[in-house]
Specification:
The protein has helices spanning 2-11, 27-42, 57-70, 109-114, 118-133, 136-145, 147-155, 159-169, 176-191, 199-212, 219-222, 226-239, 252-258; strands at residues 86-89, 97-100, 104-108. By secondary structure, the chain is mainly α. It contains 13 helices and 3 strands. 42% of the residues are buried. The chain has one domain (26-258). Strand 2 and strand 3 form a beta hairpin. Bound molecules: zinc ion (ZN). The site of zinc ion has 6 residues, from helix 5 and helix 9.
């Protein structure tokens, strides 16, 4: 163990601490890469029909208030360093959300309309925040595209690969370890908020029920085995003695209605 820690210190691999893989990126590179991916996504409205803030103020204000509530948690390491920018993608058929390095996040209208409680979306947001905050995203991209390509894109060259990486963001598959880690952090973050700490479990429960009914939501292709995850999330909430009662759902129906 000591040898391992020394190795980490020696090479300054920032992700060694959690044992979930190596991350040779600097925080600055995470932010740069996120900015590049954001620009790519916003420049491609046919593929990513992002709802503009103007005209959708109600929806965005609600979502940002939810984000701010989650960012109250001091367990989010980069809560003041990352921008935690949110975008809503108009696609009612896609039950998904994703996060880019540096805290750039997108939520599909399909996910919002699918959920019946604010706490469930807060759980998913917490999960996505964790992917960025724990820097799973850069690790997963490095694994998928290779260090050289991802570094070049973050530095501003390798333009040809940028579109490919941006497109891959929505399909980026994290390891089971990363998924478990994001679920656990979601519980920890929400524990410090007014939301039920196991909010993400509510979403997975609904997915499991839907899958049984024959549906195959997009979230399942990148987020495996939700059944075990419901139990793991609930167990952790209990162990940490975090609140599992739902917050007041006032405003949720109006929020959903405002997402057009
Ligand atoms: Zn995930």
């Amino acid at each position: 163990m000591r040898k391992y820690l020394f190795f980490c210190l020696l090479l300054a691999f920032s992700a060694c601490k959690n044992g979930l893989g190596l991350n040779v990126f600097t925080l600055q590179q995470d932010k740069q890469l996120g900015d590049k991916l954001k620009a790519e996504i916003l420049s491609n409205p046919s593929k990513y029909p992002v709802l503009p803030y103007q005209g959708n103020e109600k929806a965005y204000n609600y979502l940002y208030a939810m984000r701010d509530e989650i960012l109250k948690s001091d367990k989010i390491r980069y809560r003041s360093q990352f921008k935690w920018e949110l975008h809503i993608i108009k696609d009612d058929k896609t039950l998904n959300a994703f996060a880019a390095p540096g805290g750039f996040m997108c939520v599909y209208t399909g996910l919002i309309k699918y959920l019946e409680h604010a706490d469930h979306l807060a759980g998913v947001l917490g999960h996505e925040i964790a992917h960025a905050d724990q820097r799973h995203s850069t690790q997963a991209m490095t694994k998928a595209y290779g260090l050289q390509v991802v570094t070049q894109v973050a530095a501003g060259s390798g333009g040809g690969q940028l579109a490919e990486i941006a497109a891959g963001l929505t399909q980026l598959s994290f390891s089971r370890g990363h998924e478990k880690d994001a679920d656990e952090h979601s519980v920890e973050y929400l524990c410090d908020t007014r939301y039920a700490s196991n909010g993400a479990a509510g979403f997975f429960e609904k997915l499991v029920a839907n899958k049984a009914a024959g549906g195959t939501p997009a979230f399942l292709s990148t987020h495996p085995s939700p059944k075990n995850r419901v139990k793991d999330i609930n167990d952790l909430a209990k162990k940490l003695r975090c609140k599992t009662t739902m917050a007041d759902n006032t405003g949720w129906a109006q929020f959903k209605a405002s997402v057009k």
